[in-house]
Amino acid sequence: MSETTPLVSVVIVNFRRPDDTVACLEAVRGVDWPADALEVIVVDNASGDGSASRIQAADTSAQVIESAENVGFAGGCNLGAAAARGDYLAFINNDAKPDPQWLRAAIPVLESKSAACVASKVLDWEGRTIDFVDGALSFYGHGFKLHVGEPAAEFSDDVSDVLFASGAAMIVDTAVFAELGGFDERYFMFFEDVDFGWRLWLNGYEVRYVPSSVVYHRHHVSMSDVGSWREHFLLERNALFTIYKNYDDEHLRDVLPAALALAVRRGVALGGDDPHALDIRAASADESPMIEVHKHTLAATYAVDAFVEAFPGLAEDRERVQAARRRPDAEILRLFRRPLQPNIEAPAFRKGYDAVVDAFGIEEVFARRSRIVVATGDSLRPAMAGPAIRAWHIALALCKEHDVELVSTTACDGLSHPDFRVRKVDAREFHRLVAWADIVVFQGFVMFENPAVAASSKIVVADIYDPFHLEQLEQARDADEKDRRRIVQSATDVLNEQLARGDFFTCASSKQRDFWLGQLAAMGRINPLTYDADETLSELITIVPFGVSDAPPCKTRDVLKGVVPGIERDDKVILWGGGIYNWFDPLTLLHAVDKLRVRLPGVRVYFLGLKHPNPHVPEMRMAVATRRLADQLGLTDTHVFFNEGWVEYDDRQNYLLEADVGVSTHLDHVETEFSFRTRILDYFWAALPVVATAGDSLATLIEERGVGLTVPAGDVDALEEALFDLLSDDDRNAECRRNSAEVAETFRWSKALAPLVEFCRDPRRAPDLLDPDMVRLMGTAPGRRTRRERLVYWREDYETVRAYLRSGDWKAMSKKAGGRVMRQLGGDR
After folding, report:
1. Residue 266 has what DSSP assignment?
2. Predicted TM-score (pTM) of this structure
3. How far is CA 439 from CA 195, 205, 395, 433, 756, in A?
4. pLDDT (tens digit, 9 = 90+) per residue, 220-245?
């Protein structure tokens, strides 16, 4: 077996169908997976017809386990899993056959740790119609498949999250399967896959549908021996098991009474019995009327009784399941797809169904989703900068519970997601989106460019993680003095408008929050109404730092060592993990490396990106100076290397994982104190030791947690010594890596965005903005300009651009326009 190829254990459960199982075995042996990395296990479920020996004779390499009793599909799968040695378990029905790429398409998803379970695409035996591409769940616990019977050739699907994988074909991480206790064997068959999928999500894992992982299935052959009323009993009982174990307390209180009532009503409806046959008014006290009851009616009644009978064990299981909860129901309910869909349309049932749903307020349980627009002025594309990355992850977090549209006012291409729409919008489209939305989350200049946001009564969340008016103090040095003053004032005005209108604010650190509290106070937003609502003001402004991916980085290809000419496999690589902007100090780094190469000839510096992914952003003055100095010192392409483009977001881990140290050096000015260097978080994510300039919040963290070393701004000798220490001392480097990995846990996006997710669960307008008297008072705040007054600055900018156009000075115009774009974008990536 290859060292890099994981061992996969395929589990097949047989019950009196040896011919089907042998055919399935033959197809499994034909999958595109190394034979020495494939373990095949067949569990014979007490067939009693010689199935086990026939199967073993057909495939002598397979491990055949004979169960002394029929333990059902759930118990049979668990028996196979208990005997498995593989890294991954692949369950497949014995009346199914896998496509040759079944495992090859699924295993990389599990290897990346982005999901713990893969749901395969299941088609009919000839591949003509759909058997499983997505699963849905009713609020009362009945799972069902979407798109069953639709022509496969006409169905277009993508990789997506699903609540559960079909038991006909799923692949799951073996350790996770064991952690969850496998399938619940009380189910015997039916809905054990639904229950398992729900528990995966509840425990913080994900189930991913991968359409290129295909299996062909003989429809419902395995069900033919059950009998329709027995099947009905199992479905009703197992559905009650599922909802009782897995709903949280709040939702269980809402749903369980309705589910019990509907279980009985469904049995009566399916049995065709007359619910009015027992008329107590027509019967005397001594009469015992004879009533014929259909088996379906009894099946439903017995299912409820079996649910009651199982209570002691179920209660223990519920306590254990809920104690392990890592994800709230609010994130899981979206995966139900069609929670209010009744599974039968008989008029007698539908009338009762509507009455129960209305009486118990079930629609309200599943109607707590908001419509949210997440808007950025940055470019949304595979190669993204900081603001777009942040907006992308905000949309990812919020779409789990809400209907989300992620939009850019600049550019969008090559980026999509199955759970929310991603696109570029113009002013008219954005105006329509604001009308559609309940909540608007934005960053940068979006609200200034789209007055509909400020003018609306919608809930507005201003993401002010980047104090870009401070950046402009440095960035605008390229402009003449008059323009520089106007640029800085314009940026300040734009932010003040946000502070005056926002209902809720997010910033990146406690130091930033202190800064913004001061500016909010100057705008009159810290007042008796906001204070009385929450004396800590956390309901007005909270900390939402930049984050790192919840899944650990996984290397997919070589990118630096032995790949870039001049960087050998045993060289020591220092990574500059982002763009070169005017508020950074790469020049001190180059001087330090010029000295360091004497002591460490194999030292190399790699600058991850020069050309900003937004085509309207011109090259920075500091980037030009950096290249010039590297040439002057003779470092270019010998010890210092520049990536001329911009690394795609989903490819950056390959560069990070090949680096030995991550570096971030910046100038000593006010922007430093309130910045949040997002590239440093990527270093944490990849467990890199860090060398950074002292002075900002992350530098303090680096010092306190032993992640690396910090140095004074502009100190070449201190920087050279710090880099030497971490590159030459393997033990210290390893210790910093361990500490860095621990720090990364506190910055996972799921944790970082939790305050925003919580706000959107119970969104509200700011109390002072709903009080006309308070609004009038705040409107007189000193220094606050009206929109009309602010437009004066923008008219002057417009006249400046017109003048450059007339003169034909395209270079100067590009420089001015680029400054405007950078003011809109902000960020340091």
Report:
1. H
2. 0.63
3. 33, 28, 12, 10, 12
4. 444 444 458 888 899 999 999 999 99
